[in-house]
Amino acid sequence: MQRVDRRIIYTLIFISVIVPTLWPLQLPTAVTPETQSFFNAVDSLPSGSRILFPFDCWPSTLAETEPMAVAALRHCFRKDLRVVGLSNVGMGGPSVLERVLLQVGGEFGKEYGTDYVNLGYKANYQAVLLGMGSKIEDIFPTDHHGTRLAELPLMREVPNYDSLRFTVIISDNAMVDYWVSLVNARYGMPMVAAVTAVMAPKQLSYVQAHQLQGLLGGMKGAAEYERLIGAIDKANRGMDSQSLIHLLVIGFIVLGNVGYFVTRDKRRAPAGQQG
Amino acid sequence: MKHRLPILVAFISGAIMIVAFFGRGSVVDAVSDEALRGQTIVAGIALLLGVFSIVQVHWGRITTHHSDRVYSAVLLLCLAMMAGFGVFAGVDAGGVYDWLFQKIQAPMMATMFSMLAFFIASAAYRAFRARTIPSTILLVTAIVVMLGRIPMGQYLYDGLPSWANWIMVVPSVAVQRGIIIGAALGAASMSLRILLGIERTYLGRG
Question: Distance (Å) from the C-alpha of residue A243 to the closest C-alpha of chain B?
Fold first, then answer.
C-alpha cells in the first residue's frame, strides 16, 4: 500500500480532472465571509465610480486568476463602474488583462477609453505605485496601445489616486503587500484582493486588520463570486475537478498511512520476538 | 570619498523618500516624484541590460558549440520574434504578438504550472505520514482544510466549511501575522543599516 506506481496516481488525477469537466457535478459552494465582504464592498460603490483594476498575474496561474478577474469585472461593469486597468507583471499581464477587459467589456457593451482603459505595464512596481499617487501620466504617458492618456476621456478625469474611489487587485504574487503598504497606507485607498489559493492565508491577515475590505481565495473564491453575482462559469466547473482531486489526494494520504502503520507493526513484531 | 559619496547619496535619497511618504504635499514630495519617475526609467534600462546579458550568454553557448546550444538558439529565436513583432507590429489584441502570447506562451506556462497537481498528489501519498504527534496534527488539519474548501466536503458534512475557515482565519493568520511582522522589522532594520552606512555590501565590499 506504500508503493503504488506513480503512473496509476497520475492516471487517476488525469481522470479526476477530465470527468467533471465533461460531466459537471454542479455541487453548491458555501460563501465565506471574506468573499461576501468583497462582494458587499464592490456592490456599495455608486454607479459611475472610477476604480483601479491591477491585474498582477503571470500566465501560469490563469486557471485561478482569470475566473476571479472575469467575475469581479462582470460585477463592476454591471454596476457601471469605470475601470482603469494596469499590470505590474511585464510578462503577459497586460495581454491577459486586455483579453479579460475586451471579453467582459463586450458582454456589457462598454467602450474603450470611456468606460475602461488598459494602462499596460511599467517596470519597478514600487516606483509605479507611489508615482501614480502624484500623477499617473508621469508614470504612464501612454496606455497599452500607445495612445496618449490625454486622448482618453476616462483618463482625463483621473490625474492620480484622489480621483479613484476603490481598487480591485487581482494577484498571484507579493504585489498585494505593496498595494496595501504603499497605496492603502499612504493614500487611504480602500481595496479588495483576489489572490491564488496558496496566497490567501497570508492576505487574510490584511482583511482582519481592515487594510483589505474583502478577499477571494483561488478558484473557490471565484466560484463563490460567480454564485453571488448569478453568473455561473468556469470557476464552478473547475471546483468539481478540484473536489475530486482533493478527495483523491486525501484517499492517497490515508492509503499511505495505513500502509505505513501495517508495515511498522510488522517491523516491530520480529524485533519483539528477538528480544 | 570613494565610499562616503555613495553613502551620502543613499542617505539623502532614503531620507527624502521617508519624509515624502509621511508628509504628503510637502516640498520634499515634488523631489520624491522626480526620483520615482527616474526610478521607472532606470528600471526600464535595467530590463534592457537583462536582454543584452541573456543574448550574450546564449550567443556564447552557440558559438562555443555547447551541448545545450540548440536550446539557446530556440531561446534567441523566440526572443527576437516576440520583441520584433511587439515593437514593429504592436501588441494590440488580434495582432501576431498577441496571437503568439495567447496561443503558445500562456498555455505553455499554464501547462507547466498545472503539472504540480500530479506531483503534489504523488508527494502527498509518499511523504505525508503520521509519524509523530506534530505531523499527525498537521495531517488532520490538512485533511479538514482540504475537505472544507471543496463543495464535496460540504456535501459530506455541513460543518466542514466553517471548521476549515476557522483554521484559516484564526491559527493560520496568527502565524502569518507573526511572519509578516518579523519580516517587516527585518526589512526596516536593514534599510536603516543601509541609510546610516553600516551595511555597505552594495558598495562592492563586506
Answer: 5
Q: What is the pTM of this model?
A: 0.88
Task: Answer whether B110 sits within 8 Å of A255, measured CB to CB.
Answer: no
CATH of domain A31-232: 3.40.50
Chain B interface, mutation test: which of A205, A226, A245, A265, most B Cβ atoms within 10 Å? Answer: A205
Q: Do B171 and B142 have their domain in common?
A: yes
**How many helices, marked H, and strands, marked E, lie in chain A?**
12, 6
Mean pLDDT by 10 residues, chain A (275 residues): 82 91 83 94 95 94 93 96 94 90 95 95 90 91 92 94 95 93 92 94 92 94 94 88 90 89 76 54
Domain boundaries, chain A: 1-28+234-275, 31-232
Domain count, chain B: 3
- Which of B36, B146, B151 comes nearest A250 by C-beta? B146
Q: Please give the residue range of the domain that contains residue B16.
A: 1-66
